[in-house]
Amino acid sequence: MVKVIASSLRKGNVVDIDGRLYAILSAENIHPGKGTPVTQVDMRRISDGVKVSERWRTTEQVEKAHVDEYEYDYLYEDGEGFHFMEPQTYEQIVVSGDVIADNKVYLQEGMRCWVKTFEGTAIAIEFPQKIIVEITDTEPVVKGQTASSSYKPAMTDSGLRVMVPPHIGPGTRIVINTEDNSYVERAKE
């Protein structure tokens, strides 16, 4: 086990709390105007899948569990789960649906992800920070909106809702940040 400060925790990390392993689903550092900055973490207990929320001071020490972490390419999904392949050995691993959870919208065929395993079982997955998606549907621009600050809701080909600038329309490929589903830029391809 390695002790790290709470503010360094990220989505996909695995922590050990009182001898139980938890996969981090989201981590946010909150800096109030007054008072102590804290790290708000939502996590899933690996043993039974129960979701838990925890709050630590940003400088508090947390035990980060030692897990094996390997790069895998996403292949496909079937009734068994999500299939990934190790690019050098072609060894395949199946990741269960509860490990992927709501992050299924990020998966694209051939995508390289970091799969974290503990004693041979996949317990968490880390996606690339930026991915390219295609916009399938957007709301029309309201006349009189200024382009600088107004964003409109849009739906991607994977079923993810994102906020995009008014000039983005259906069929446009964009780059999004997987940490918070925010629009980054138009895809350069």
Features:
single chain; 189 residues; mainly beta; SH3 type barrels; OB fold (Dihydrolipoamide Acetyltransferase, E2P); 3 domains; 5-stranded antiparallel sheet; 1 helix; 52% strand; flat
Q: Can you walk me through this structure?
A:
There is one protein chain. The chain is mainly beta and 189 residues long. The protein has three domains: 63 residues, SH3 type barrels (Roll); 59 residues, Beta Barrel (OB fold (Dihydrolipoamide Acetyltransferase, E2P)), CATH 2.40.50; 57 residues, OB fold (Dihydrolipoamide Acetyltransferase, E2P). 2% of the residues lie in helices and 52% in strands. It is built from one helix and 16 strands. The protein has a five-stranded antiparallel beta sheet. Strands 14-13-12-15-16 form a five-stranded antiparallel beta sheet, with no helix packed on it. The protein has a four-stranded antiparallel beta sheet with strand order 2-3-4-5, with no helix packed on it. β3 and β4 form a beta hairpin. The radius of gyration is 19 Å and the shape is flat. The termini are far apart. The mean pLDDT is 85. Pathway: Protein biosynthesis; polypeptide chain elongation. Belongs to the elongation factor P family. It holds the Pfam family Elong-fact-P_C.
